[in-house]
Every structure is written in C-alpha cells, then in structure tokens.
Amino acid sequence: MAEYRIAVLPGDGIGQEVTREALRVLKAVGNKFGRKFVFQEALVGGTAYDETGVPLPPETLKLCENSDAILLGAVGGDKWDNLPSSLRPEAALLTLRKHFDLFANLRPIILFPPLIDASPLKREILEGTDIIIVRELTGGLYFGKPKERRKNNGDVVAVDTMIYSESEIKRIANVAFQIARNRRKLLHSVDKANILETSRLWREVVNDVAQDYPDVELHHLYVDNAAMQLLRNPRQFDVILTENTFGDILSDEAAMLTGSIGMLPSASIRGDGFGMYEPVHGSAPDIAGKGIANPIATILSSAMMLRFSFQLEEEARAIEKAVLEVLELGYRTPDIMSDGKKQVSTTEMGSLIEEALYKSIS
Ligand code: IPM
Ligand code: MG
C-alpha cells in the first residue's frame, strides 16, 4: 500500500484525549519507517449527536467506507443516557460493527511485567498471564430481534433476543482456532450450555470446527466458571472464544489482570484486512478533560491496526516496545500508579512513548 487511509473517530469523553496521543505515536512511526498514513477525522457518538442530531452522521460512515481502517476513541456519557436507543452514542458503535461485518473482536490480555504490582491481584497469580479473548461481535443479545418493550395486561415487559446461527458460530470459531494454532495451541470456548439453547448450538459447532484443528487442544467452560477461573488461575488460558455478551463481561474482568482497563487494546476485524481499532475502556466521563486518562490502550490499538490491517509487523512491534520501555522507566498514569513511580498526564505519557519510539529506532 502506498498510503494508508485511517478514519479517526475520537468520539466522547476521554476518547478525544487518548486518540490524540495515539495519532502522535502513529505519526512518529510513519516518519521513522517512511510510511504514509493519511488521517481524516470525523464525528461519532454523543459529540456527533450534539452537532448533527445523530450519533453516526452519513459523512462519518462514508469516510469509514473510503478508509483502510478505523481508529476509534470511545463513545457514551451520562449526558446522552436518556435518548431513545437509536440515538444513543452506543448505537453508532454497534452500527459500525454491523455495517462493516466486523464479527471478530480480538482483545489481548497482556501483562506488562513492570505493571505486576499495579494490579490488585497477587503477583503469584498474575505472573506469565498472556491471553487473547476472541469475542463474537455482531450477533447474540446485542443485535437479536425482537428487542423491544411491550405491554402485557398493563404490565411493562422488555425483551432482548439471544440468537446465533451455525454459520456465525463457525466463522468466529475458525478465527479462534487459527489464532490458537499460532500460539500455545490451547483453546477454551466459553458458553452457558447447561441453560441456553444458543450455547448448546455453540458447543456443537465449535466441536465440529475442532475436527479441522487436531493440533489444538479444546476445552469447554461455563461462563460462570470461566469468570472464576480467570481470577483463580489466569495462566491456564491461552485463547478464549466466546459470544458477544459473555465476551464483553469477561474482557472487563480480565482487564484487571493487566492492572488497569486503561491498558487493553482491541481489534474488530472480518478477515480481509479492514478493521476498527479501539481501546476496551469507555469514555469515562468522570475523568474526561482532566488530562489523567491512560492513552496506552489506544496506542496499543493503533499497533494492532498496523499489524492486522496493514501487515506492518515491525512498526507494530516498535510501538509495543516503546510502551514497555516507558513503563520500565517508571512512568505511570494515575490508573496504574504505584509507590515510587513517576506519575504523568495523558499527554506526557503520549510524548514519552513517542520519544522512546524515535530513540529506539534511530
Ligand atoms: C465494549 C463496550 C461496548 C460493548 C459498549 C460501549 C457498547 O463495552 O466494547 O466492550 O458493550 O460492546
Ligand atoms: Mg465492554
């Protein structure tokens, strides 16, 4: 690719602040490696609603369609919580995922050794944690119909629908098995097959797909047990495959293994190179505008973009290495701060990573 077109959607709350730092880092990578990244910004979420009356303006969607990848900050905030569901900031995110068929959400749970004491969990439990959660992203409860309110004999009833097809399960299972094949060849599929019909189908299809991957060891776990096992012994996991809602919940839980949700990147992909990259954390309205948000999750998301959408592995590693170096030097945003370390702001963290990047590859 002669140039890489990136749609930049900072969104709401700390999304604005963390995206700025990721852009600074991407520009540094572009300069150092002679890559041409073209950034074009557009509105999304509550910010878009305030300016245009909708959370995902047509111009934003068009820009994304004409780009090679999307870098997104975060959407949402109390201010927009009482809007009808189609106008809520989150609707923009769900529409983007569905519109581009980004069915595979990859969430690496990597513990950076210098942060081992930032987690509330014990060192003995955490050491060596290296997991990737493969979350199905375009099905299940998030999108199933009916999804509505009804009146039933004067009582108000709300319904969401959990629905999965064989083909949806098959394609996400294949992604997970392929990733597992290139790692420790160990896959845990998480469901609730003792209760849910969708989970029983999930298990059957995953077992079928497993026939094509005899080299990968497969285990099935109920989601309640998986939630416990993640804290009891995270090292037993390598790749975790699960449906949309379970993946949402388990990834926030797993974030605490890394010290802070401010460390967790994600990639939402469909297998042809196009993808959307965003931190796992939300817009955090409580700390927005204070300059204390951790930009590392978004910076690491941009590294995932270089790796998965642009096949720029060396550049992606340079970013990850720069992050590690800055942490080794003792710099911390407040969410990962511990005794004896140097507390820095969002922009200071961004510029330290930028500097480390320039130094290490010059
Ligand atoms: C996530 C977020 C989103 C989700 C919200 C913001 C809609 O929590 O990406 O994990 O539930 O998928
Ligand atoms: Mg979530």
Strand content: 15-25%
Poorly predicted segments? none
- What is the class of the largest domain in the CATH system? Alpha Beta
Main sheet summary: 10 strands, mixed
End-to-end C-alpha gap: 24 Å
Structural class: alpha/beta
Q: Which range best describes the helical content: under 10%, 10-25%, 25-40%, 40-55%, 55-70% or over 70%?
A: 40-55%
Instruction: Tally the beta strands.
Output: 14
How many H/I helical runs? 12
As laid out across the biggest beta sheet, the strand order is 2-1-3-12-11-4-5-10-8-9
The molecules bound to the chains, other than polymers, are: 3-isopropylmalic acid, magnesium ion
**Backbone shape:** globular
CATH fold name of the largest domain, please?
Isopropylmalate Dehydrogenase
Under CATH, the homologous superfamily of the largest domain reads Isopropylmalate Dehydrogenase
Order of helices and strands: EHEHHEHEHEEEHEHEHEHEEHHEEH
CATH architecture of the largest domain: 3-Layer(aba) Sandwich
Total number of distinct structural domains = 2
Q: Give the overall pLDDT as a whole number.
A: 96
